[in-house]
Amino acid sequence: MTQHLSGGPVLVVTKELDPAADLVVDELTIRRVPVMRFDMGNFPSAVSLSAEHAGAPWAGALADEHRSVRMEEVRAVYYRRPRLPAVSEEMQEPHRTWANEQALAGLLGTLYALPVLWVNRPDVDGIASHKPGQLPVAAAHGLRTPRSLITTDPKAARVFCRELGGPVICKPLMGGPLEYPDDRRTGVPTALIDPDTIDDTVSLTAHLFQERITKSHEVRLTVVGTDMFAAEIHAGSDISRVDWRSDYDALTYDVCEVPDDVRAGVLGWLKHFGLSFGAFDFAVTPSGDWVMFECNPSGEWSWIQSKTGLPIAAHIADLLAKGRP
Q: What is the secondary structure of 219-237 as a DSSP string?
């Protein structure tokens, strides 16, 4: 049987311009770990695959114009939001869509079958990224979570607000910007809600309402394997106090420690979903309680490293270099 080689290459699957992936590749290079970096959007036009199954894990070659690696020698995969495979535009519909689906199934399916570490598998990442599934798992592992309502019913939203008897926020259920026909892209921030303004437009789609947590600051907790890197985020403007993503210029940062109960809860949360990496958002109350809002399994981290000096890239590289699933 062909054996997986722990000293083999790491695949870095990402878009062509990705500063975070650049940092990880640099760290792997320092460790003399061979790397093949590619964007799935270049498959099959500029990336080729030939893999054979004969009773053992897939064996064969993955190659582009610069390098080639043996599939059976891959030790780990770092996956960060690549484009989807795209066949030649000369192919006509419906065959083009069908062929794109075949390309995705062939490439990603073969990679899934390799007995290697992923940071993170996109199918697992996708399941874990849904907020409705995140909060009950967090609570089950001892993490405090905000009282929340998902609804398309304006009456239910108004009742929820009255029962809370205090400030309420509304936030997107999933990430992603608004994309306009003129190519403008804008984020959808968390909003502070006046209960008297809730109207029938709530029925147009699902909404997430939550109690507003009184906080002294927030924490972005980046977890790599079992290593934790916590950064306090202090808001310096009114809009950043509601959603710090709305005003990065008003933010200041400090490194902090993670309480033992939060550490245990976070590790349990990651184990539940089978993740090797997660970017968690917490609010910290004036009394010091940590309240988990969400986790982005493929969250950005390079800006936190830049602001705080936390060695996140180095630890991602260490995890990939070990290559153990």
A: EEEEEETTEEEEEEEEE-S
Sheet containing 207-211: give its strands across. 148-151, 207-211, 168-171, 191-193
Could you give the CA distance from residue 156 to residue 256 in angstroms, rounded to a whole number?
Answer: 39
Beta strand residue intervals within 43-194, DSSP E: 48-52, 59-63, 68-70, 76-80, 117-119, 148-151, 168-171, 178-179, 185-186, 191-193
The token pair that represents 289 in the structure block:
């309680």
Could you tell me the residue ranges of all domains in the chain? 10-119, 147-211, 214-297
Contacts of 132 (CB under 8 A, 6+ apart): 150, 173
Architecture of domain 10-119 in this structure: 3-Layer(aba) Sandwich (3.40)
What CATH number labels 214-297? 3.30.470.20
Q: What is the pLDDT of residues 167-188, one digit of tens each?
A: 898 999 887 777 788 877 777 8
